[in-house]
């Protein structure tokens, strides 16, 4: 059985019958599971029978053991249930005892509270009677005029003496003077004794402050809190705090350091530290800062506007920065309004007329900068016609339809200066910054607009516009020889300057007016300025006439009739004529100059106009000559060079015009039999027949019957 038990429980995995039989057969000799052994079924059967008997015996033993354990478990369960019932009964008894004890405690507590109320009702009148008796005793001493009590003679008991005198003083003030009692109490109600003690307390507070005894200061301040002289105690504290605090040149930094030091200390001394600190700050602003600001500003107010404005901006900024630092402290409920009122009280007399001073200074300073520049050029400004957009457009219409009058020689001077512009913009930038800081929020957009108007007047009108007008007057007539086209230099510099003007408009003016009705006014004013300048640039289109005039002079001087009808057709060594070379060189310089002088769509507009006029000039120029076969080839080479030059314009229309002109020049050399074919080609098919005929007529062999017959 022991062997069967060990075999039965040999594994820890769940019992599997098939595996159990297999293990049993494997361990039995002759079971057939071991290699090399003969299978013996009888022996295996005998083993199975024996094993079954062992299992039955083992099962009986286990069953008896289980029954024994079940009986034991039932017995213990009954005992445990009985014990739980006993514990529940004990718990109920304890809970009843606890309720009884709680009721008893509540009853006793109620009795104690009632007894305490009765004792307090008896003790309070008794204490009042004792205090009244003491006050009567001290009152008698005052009536006798001899203060014998230790509380009045001992300086260390000044706190108790102050409390007694304060009470007697209040009592005496409530009694009418015309009564006998009031008359007797007059010494107590009069200022003498009361104020004497106040002075002693304040003197004691002052001495403690000088010694740095915070605890004694707090004690005396608490006593004085009930006296009328408490505010005087605060004044003394504020005055002594400032002794030696303003020794450096920077009064604002000294004030910040002082307030920071007092803020740490005042809470340990006074019961209302925020009020004391606010009074200190008010005293600093109304005395120290106001005096300092007045000294700094009054010195330059009438004599030096520039220094006055700089000092005003600097002082206001530093005062505002100090106010921002003080915002960290506890000054009561509305400290923002409190500090704003202090700042306004200091600067109100200076801010009322600030913008008038600003505009006056900006006007005189800008005029001086411009005059100094023109004086350096030995130039006396001429009177320039003024007017609105419509007047400018009328002048443009008249100028383009009527011959030009005599031009003004500017000697190559544009009368525009980067240094002047930078100075004007810098002055205006500083004015915008001062305006932002010093203007009332309601007046800020209006003041900023006035400063902007000054900038427009002196930079745009008096400087840029004057230079454009002078440049227009200096444009030479179209028939002038060796004319210098300085107007494009004026345009280039004016364009650069206006970009700087526009940048200041966006960076410094826009933030000041972005949320006000003045924004539309400023934008309209800027738009008018741009339109005026564009109109004057359009008037400068006369410069293109001068360019075309210069090209005419070059062609007239350099182009010879023999260029296109050489005497020796077989000995032509040049690729294109000298006139073509010089004209192309001149045109390329002017194109580059236009690109450098303008930007945006203006470049394409001007180059298109110049390109069209250039094409018309070359077209008409070629119509003046007769062409031999070799001369026609040379004309084609010239036009090819002109077409290369036209590519620099980067304008499709201009290049197309020269492509067509190049195709027309082919009519000068094509064989008579091929004329109709060439004329019907892609580039010439849409041209008027008269144009084609006019080019064919330029051939020296046009009069031949064969050529006329082929073209007819």
Automatic annotation (TrEMBL):
The keyword Electron transport does not apply. PANTHER family: EXOCYST COMPLEX COMPONENT 5, SEC10. Belongs to the SEC10 family. Residues 160-711 form the Exocyst complex component Sec10-like alpha-helical bundle domain. Residues 41-149 form the Exocyst complex component Sec10 N-terminal domain. It comes from the Eukaryota. Pfam families: Sec10_HB, Sec10_N. It comes from Pardalotus punctatus (spotted pardalote). InterPro entries: Sec10-like, Sec10_HB, Sec10_N. One of its GO terms (biological process) is exocytosis. The gene is Exoc5. This is Exocyst complex component 5. Keywords: Coiled coil, Exocytosis, Transport. GO terms for cellular component: exocyst. Residues 52-90 form a coiled coil.
């Amino acid at each position: 059985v022991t062997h069967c038990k060990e075999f039965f429980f040999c594994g820890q995995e769940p019992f599997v019958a098939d595996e159990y039989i297999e293990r049993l057969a494997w361990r039995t000799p002759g079971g057939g599971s071991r290699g090399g052994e003969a299978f013996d079924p009888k022996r295996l059967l005998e083993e199975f029978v024996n094993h079954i008997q062992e299992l039955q015996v083992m099962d009986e033993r286990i069953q008896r053991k289980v029954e024994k354990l079940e009986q034991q478990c039932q017995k213990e369960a009954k005992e445990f249930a009985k014990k739980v019932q006993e514990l529940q009964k004990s718990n109920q008894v304890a809970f009843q005892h606890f309720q009884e004890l709680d009721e008893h405690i509540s009853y006793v507590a109620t009795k104690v509270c009632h007894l305490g109320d009765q004792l307090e009702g008896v003790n309070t009148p008794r204490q009042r009677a004792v205090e009244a008796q003491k006050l009567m005793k001290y009152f008698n001493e005052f009536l006798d005029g001899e203060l014998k009590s230790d509380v009045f003679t001992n300086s260390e008991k000044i706190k108790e003496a102050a409390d007694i005198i304060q009470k007697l003083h209040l009592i005496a003030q409530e009694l009418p003077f015309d009564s006998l009692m009031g008359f007797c109490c007059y010494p107590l109600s009069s200022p003498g004794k009361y104020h004497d003690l106040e002075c002693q307390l304040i003197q004691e507070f002052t001495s403690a402050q000088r010694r740095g005894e915070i605890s004694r200061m707090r004690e005396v301040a608490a006593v004085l809190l009930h006296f009328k002289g408490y505010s005087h105690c605060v004044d003394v504290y504020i005055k002594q705090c400032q002794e030696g605090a303003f020794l450096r040149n920077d009064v604002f930094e000294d004030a910040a350091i002082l307030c920071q030091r007092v803020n740490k200390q005042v809470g340990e001394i006074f019961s209302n530290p925020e009020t004391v600190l606010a009074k200190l700050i008010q005293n600093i602003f109304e005395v120290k800062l106001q005096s300092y600001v007045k000294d700094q500003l009054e010195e330059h107010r009438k004599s030096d506007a520039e220094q006055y404005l700089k000092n005003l901006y600097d002082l206001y900024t530093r005062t505002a920065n100090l106010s921002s630092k003080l915002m960290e402290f506890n000054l009561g409920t509305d400290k923002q309004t409190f500090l704003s009122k202090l700042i306004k009280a200091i600067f109100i007399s200076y801010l009322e007329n600030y913008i008038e001073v600003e505009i006056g200074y900006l006007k005189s300073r800008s005029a001086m900068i411009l005059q100094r520049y023109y004086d350096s050029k030995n130039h006396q400004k001429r009177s320039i016609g003024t007017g609105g957009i419509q007047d400018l457009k009328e002048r443009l219409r008249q100028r383009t339809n009527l011959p030009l009058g005599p031009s003004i020689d500017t000697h190559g001077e544009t009368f525009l200066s980067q240094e002047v512009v930078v100075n004007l913009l810098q002055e205006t930038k500083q004015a915008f910054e001062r305006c932002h800081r010093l203007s009332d929020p309601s007046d800020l957009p209006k003041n900023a607009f006035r400063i902007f108007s000054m900038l427009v007047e002196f930079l745009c009108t008096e400087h840029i516009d004057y230079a454009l007008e002078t440049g227009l007057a200096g444009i030479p007539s179209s028939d002038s020889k060796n004319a210098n086209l300085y107007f494009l230099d004026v345009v280039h510099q004016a364009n650069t300057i206006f970009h700087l003007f526009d940048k200041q408009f966006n960076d410094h003016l826009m933030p000041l007016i972005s949320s006000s009705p003045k924004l539309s006014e400023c934008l309209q004013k800027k738009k008018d300025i741009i339109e005026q300048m564009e109109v004057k640039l359009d008037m400068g289109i006369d410069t293109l006439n001068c360019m075309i005039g210069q090209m005419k002079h070059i062609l007239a001087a350099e182009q010879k009739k023999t260029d296109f009808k050489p005497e020796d057709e077989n000995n032509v060594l040049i690729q294109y004529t000298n006139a073509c070379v010089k004209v192309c060189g001149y045109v390329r310089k002017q194109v580059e100059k236009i690109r450098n002088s303008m930007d945006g769509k203006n470049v394409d507009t001007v180059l298109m106009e110049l390109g069209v006029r250039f094409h018309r000039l070359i077209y008409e120029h070629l119509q003046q000559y007769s062409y031999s076969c070799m001369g026609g080839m040379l004309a084609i080479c010239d036009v090819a060079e002109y077409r290369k030059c036209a590519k620099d314009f980067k304008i499709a229309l201009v290049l197309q015009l020269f492509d067509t002109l190049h195709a027309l020049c082919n009519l000068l050399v094509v064989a008579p039999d091929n004329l109709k074919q060439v004329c019907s080609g892609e580039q010439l098919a849409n041209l008027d027949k008269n144009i084609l005929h006019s080019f064919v007529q330029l051939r020296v062999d046009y009069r031949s019957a064969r050529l006329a017959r082929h073209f007819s």
